[in-house]
Amino acid sequence: MKDQTLTIKNDLIIMAYYIEKYEWNEVNKSTFQRLLYFSAVLSPIFMPNENWGYIFSNTLFGPYNHELGIEINELETKGFLELKERRIYTNRIEERFTISKLGIDTFEKKLFNIATLRPKILWFNTLVKTLSLYGEEFLVKLVKEDPNIYYQNEMNKRSKLVTDNSSDNLSKEFFQFIKEKGISNDINFSKNQDYLLLFFDVLYQKYKGGRGV
Question: Buried b / exposed e across 73-110, counting CB within 10 Å, b at 16+?
Fold first, then answer.
């Protein structure tokens, strides 16, 4: 559990760093959940040797991991994230965060230099950069068209989302299908953005009512 907690903290700091780099507005907890879900579900394609270490479940609000919300609060309390806005509604509290100076320093001076984290750092960078082309507000719509989530919603299911390297990971299988239809080169990090653009464009077309592939 301690290792998992450290992994989640590191992932949140790394993700927050690239959210800041690509000039997203202050993001809420759901944004972190959705970005880290896409990171996990496509990791068998882009990071086949990575043991992700934590899971997501399908909810009415999208992919969710309970520990992520806890660790976001912990990072804010310890000064790695800054709370930029809090809105209180009748049924929920919405908080928006950005990375702090301490968080930036921790990433640039510590995490970036850990060799075992470099593949994940490169992957997060590519993912956030690619999604930035669509606009952060569109992330929630992309999530709804993600094959794993779409399938569960069609079946009216609220259960664990498969993110491993098995054929039950529909997102991985669908990604592989459109990659084979659109691009024939082997996957490498220099081409990651091309593959992601193809994948997200198909989801975009599905949301907009297009034919996709």
Answer: ebbbeeebbbeeeeeeeeeeeebbbbbbeebbebbeee
CA distance 213 to 205: 9
Strand partners for 159: none
> What's the whole-number mean pLDDT along residues 50-62?
92
Q: Which amino acid is at 116?
A: T
| Higher local confidence (pLDDT), 3 or 105 | 105
Order of strands across the sheet with 160-161? 62-64, 56-59, 160-161
Instruction: Please state the rounded mean pLDDT for residues 85-94.
Output: 77
Q: Which residues pair with 64 in a beta bridge?
A: 57
Q: What is the pLDDT of residue 210?
A: 45
- Model pTM score: 0.90
Structure tokens at 97: 């965060």
Provide the token pair at 112: 């970036």
